[in-house]
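Re: Re: ligand-bound prediction request (bumping)

Still looking for help on this. To restate: I need the protein modeled with LLP bound, output as structure tokens. Inputs repeated here so nobody has to scroll up.
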Amino acid sequence: MTHFPIQKFKDIRTPFYYYDTDLLTATLAAVREAAPEKEFCVHYAIKANTNPKILKLIADKGLGADCVSEGEIRAALDAGFAPEKIAFAGVGKSDVEIEFAIESGIGCFNVESMPELELIDEIATTKDKVVDIAIRVNPNIEAHTHHYITTGLKENKFGIALEMLDDAIAYCRRQPRLNLIGLHFHIGSQITTNEPFALLCERINEITDRYSAQGIEFSSINVGGGLGIDYINPDANPIPDFASYFDAFRKKLNRRPGQTVHFELGRSIVAQCGSLITRVLYVKDGLEKKFVIVDAGMTDLIRPALYQAHHHIQNLTSEAAETDTYDVVGPICESSDCFGTDETLPLTVRGDIFALRSAGAYGEIMASQYNCRRLPGSIIS
Ligand code: LLP
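Reply:
Sorry for the wait, this slipped through. Here it is.
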């Protein structure tokens, strides 16, 4: 359970992110226990949180990194992730990004289209380098999550369709600069049951069996990320159930001898260790509602506005036994700038400090300066 140093918070300008590194360390230990290094290669999906101190803690545990831009590769390298453990994914890698990634000696390109394969081949030829390639396959699997974070359906822009995979594989095998090492998958994010992952394993087994029959083997399978967290009860479930998640793959994935299996976990590693700390500016009576107006807005944490997400709201300072019902809103000039409607909270007054919980993933990194606001800072325990 996260302990908030509330006395310390009182003197600090809000809003800011607070990270509980004990929880992060315990989470990383749980990942290691459930996925021993000899058995599985776990990468951290950098996009979830690139706070340098958080990155360093994760890199120090020997995880690999999943990156989607030159900036993310730079952040990973600066934090000490080994270049050969970096995978570079994304549907729109630019020429300069590909050049930079090749020069940095990253481990693998997760390639999402034929034209991208052609460009990587061209750049690798100019540089006289051979690059390791995994083809991202769109497995057409429903992840049962918010449609903005579903990635593995055929209408999504990601990956190469199963029907077009033969051509992509044949192309790689013809080009001496492209060393096809494996297949990459990622079906979506905030997935809270293991069924979609079991389905993914079945689909991967079908694909690898089909190619095996043609004498084509893959030395690496990357199953992506997506393991969800408990946004409703962060204190009851601070660490996701990594054991049953990795077990699903252990049981369902038909692994070939010598094949490495890669994971790209973002949210499940960092979400619960972070909270957005904000101060109550006003308690305002409306005609039908009471509004708590806090100094954090959608610019600091966009998930509620963008995905209708809900982060548990905790009043860290009120000691009132009595409660009231409030809409908790930010200062931004948009009606979607709302963290919660009809929230039952202890009686709240100006100056109270709130924690918006489970905000360690896709929180600080998605902050913007809309309305010319300053970016939220961060405090690491
Ligand atoms: N691998 C790939 C190829 C991905 O696209 C993603 C996330 C991950 C791994 C990591 O997924 P995770 O383990 O974190 O679920 N901003 C959204 C989430 C976007 C996820 C994008 N891709 C949110 O706040 O919910």
